[in-house]
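Severity: low
Component: inverse-folding endpoint
Summary: output formatting inconsistent between runs
Steps to reproduce: submit the following structure tokens with default settings.
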């Protein structure tokens, strides 16, 4: 049950982040720590990533409500996890000017996929 509650909380965070990216990409770009340092504003890119966050957030929230959605949440969390790993690789490569933001992106993403990792079914 604790895994599902945590997955739901991460899902709400991811969904809200994605919603802000999709509905107000320029505002999201200008107010999110460290984003401006990544290059010029690209509405298409921010919206694309926002849609990934919406999908991941929805799937994690669905798993929180209905455990049978574990596999869907796992799949949708893959984008979030790869995105988080990219941020960690960025820091490890010496581009850690905004390492706090990079780590803050990675931790919930990796925790989310760990929480909905498929369980091995026991044979009857």
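Observed output (run 2 of 3):
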């Amino acid at each position: 049950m604790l895994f599902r509650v945590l997955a739901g909380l991460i899902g709400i965070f991811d969904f809200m982040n994605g919603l802000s990216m999709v509905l107000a990409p320029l505002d999201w770009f200008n107010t999110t720590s460290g984003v401006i340092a990544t290059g010029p504003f690209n509405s298409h890119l921010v919206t694309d990533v926002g849609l990934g966050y919406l999908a991941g957030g929805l799937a994690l929230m669905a798993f929180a409500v209905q455990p049978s959605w574990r596999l869907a949440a796992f799949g949708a969390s893959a984008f979030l996890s790869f995105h988080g790993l990219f941020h960690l690789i960025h820091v490890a490569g010496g581009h850690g000017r905004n390492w706090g933001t990079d780590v803050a992106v990675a931790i919930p993403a990796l925790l989310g996929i760990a929480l909905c990792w498929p369980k091995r079914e026991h044979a009857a």
